[in-house]
Structure prediction request, 210 residues.
Amino acid sequence: MRALFIQTKDAKSKPWLKWLSILGLVGVALFSVGDLAWMNAAKSGFQEWIGKASQTPEPTVVVEQVQPQVAVASAEPAASEAVSESASAPPQVSEEALLQEQVQAFVDQWAASWSAKNLDSYFYAYSEKFQPEGKKSHSEWVKERTQRIVSKSKIAVQVQQLVIQPMDAGHMRASFTQIYEADGLQSSTLKTLHLSRQEGVWKIIREFTP
Prediction:
């Protein structure tokens, strides 16, 4: 470039040579400016590329719509509960079976009262219309039975092979083997009681011993 500013004798003698030198200087200057601009642009682009490369991309969040689950109540537990309740329900007791239980409990209580020498409970089992065997009156029978019971120091009465049969409305028949023990005396006899239901309570109206 320094050569462009050297004035020679030819430049003084030839003006066009001077203008050619000026144009060369301008070209060099423009080339230097363009080169600098290109370098700056390249540097800026390189920095921008580095910046983009170093940036971590933000994660993409995908929101899924979850359908609400509706619980459907099953009818199976209710059905099983109904079956369980029906299975645990006590069976229906027939009227005949109920009468059998009542008469059996009555006969057992009658024997227990006799064994305990509990005269009030023993005579309470008999109806006022009770008909003793033979020609005895009710009062004579009560007096005789009282003497026999209280005269014994110990009495034990057992009922075995009890058979209960209906007679008619409000009447039942109880047949059994009576085991009697008192003061060393023991006997086994067949006995039959005719029972009548009076005001909801069973009473003995007849007593038979073969």
About this structure: The chain has two domains: 2-49, 95-208. The longest strand covers residues 155-168. The first helix runs from residue 9 to 13.
